[in-house]
Design a protein that fits this description.
single chain, alpha/beta, QueA-like, Thrombin, subunit H, 2 domains, 9-stranded mixed sheet, 6-stranded antiparallel β-barrel, 17 strands, cytoplasm
């Protein structure tokens, strides 16, 4: 497959900049893989397609407030810092992106907070935009972390073209998020409300959690036409033995397995064995999935409508079939579905 095969014209007004009023009342397109049938519903209708003991796999990663705005020493120049990954808690070392990168050198100090109560020193240049920062703080670790996160903002995607607002702290987060480490929300899970989870339980639909800490690689531009030459960033993941046992049993007993989001698909496919079972894993994955690709475990995928040329669109097309997905994206545009993390949802079944 070529990068250009995933290009389409997306009207700017169809990119959702704010979430729906209620999580489970966004629109839902249902795409049937064994026919050309496409249905248009509301998300909370999704349980009509699942029965008792079918199994939903969620990603329970938790987004942290990764975007900081500070000032450079002496010049006072405004600098945006995006926290990517904590490297050494004891030394307060973080892998970050800085913008504008050209203004930052090793040894520079950056000041954060209304009263400049947090100071960081640039100690390494790793890429054209990347840096390693050491935050200078003498107090207890938890106190430092609380201060850092109180200064940070919710890292909503740049394509929303607006600053974060207080509402984003809750809505750019899944209700079941528990393992901190993501800078990009697994957006398919945003549609699940507490009421919908309760309805799943009443219907005896089973569910469980894996963790894949979503990074900025999902939004990084692909700069090669031949997709086999593209490498995506590694992301940390955890799949427990308990989840594997429950999912594998459900599959063996003929129940449907639903992956909630492309991050779940990637995690599953990283650990799948030749017998179609998933295995426990704690480590990293840089699994890049694009068509054609054969999936053995999941029977259904819940995902949002993704932007052109994105790796998320490629994973979706791998599961739903390239031609079918590109066709239904044109239907989505015609029917004015909303795209992006705060947009509408698709069930491929």
């Amino acid at each position: 497959m070529k990068l250009s095969q995933f290009k389409f014209n997306l009207p700017e007004e169809l990119i959702a900049k704010f979430p729906s009023k209620h999580r489970d009342e966004s629109r839902l397109m249902v795409v049937h893989r064994n026919s050309d049938k496409v249905e248009h519903l509301i998300f909370k209708d999704i349980l009509n397609y699942f029965d008792a003991h079918d199994f939903f796999i969620f990603n329970d990663t938790k987004v942290f407030p990764a975007r900081l705005f500070g000032n450079k020493e002496k010049t006072g120049a405004k600098i945006e810092v995006f926290l990517l990954r904590e490297l050494n808690p004891a030394q307060h070392l973080w892998d970050v992106l800085v913008n504008p990168a050209r203004k930052i050198r090793i040894g520079n100090k950056l000041y954060f907070g209304d009263n400049e109560e947090l100071v960081a020193e640039v100690i390494d240049n790793t890429t054209s935009r990347g840096r390693t920062l050491r935050f200078l703080y003498d107090g207890p670790y938890e106190e430092f972390k609380d201060l850092l996160f109180s200064i940070g903002e919710t890292p909503i995607p740049e394509y929303m073209e607006r600053p974060a607002v207080p509402e984003d702290a809750e809505r750019y987060q899944n209700i079941f998020a528990s393992n901190e480490g993501a800078v990009v929300v697994p957006a398919a899970g945003l549609h699940f409300s507490r009421e919908l989870i309760k309805r799943m339980e009443i219907k005896n639909i089973d569910y469980g959690f894996l963790t894949l800490h979503h990074g900025l690689g999902a939004y990084r531009d692909i700069d090669v036409e031949d997709l086999t030459k593209h490498k995506i960033d590694s992301e940390q993941m955890i799949i427990s033995q308990e989840l594997c046992d429950r999912v594998n049993t459900a599959k063996d007993n003929g129940h449907k397995i639903c992956a909630v989001g492309t991050s779940v698909l990637r995690a599953i496919e990283t650990t799948i064995s030749t017998d179609g079972h998933i295995k426990p894993r704690e480590g990293w994955t840089n699994k890049f999935i694009f068509p054609p690709y054969d999936f053995t475990l999941p029977d259904a995928l819940i995902t949002n409508f993704h932007l052109p040329l994105s790796t998320l669109l490629m994973v979706t097309a791998a599961f739903g079939g390239y031609e079918r997905i590109m066709d239904v994206y044109q239907i989505a545009i015609k029917e004015k579905y909303e795209f992006g993390a705060y947009g509408d949802a698709m069930l491929i079944i």
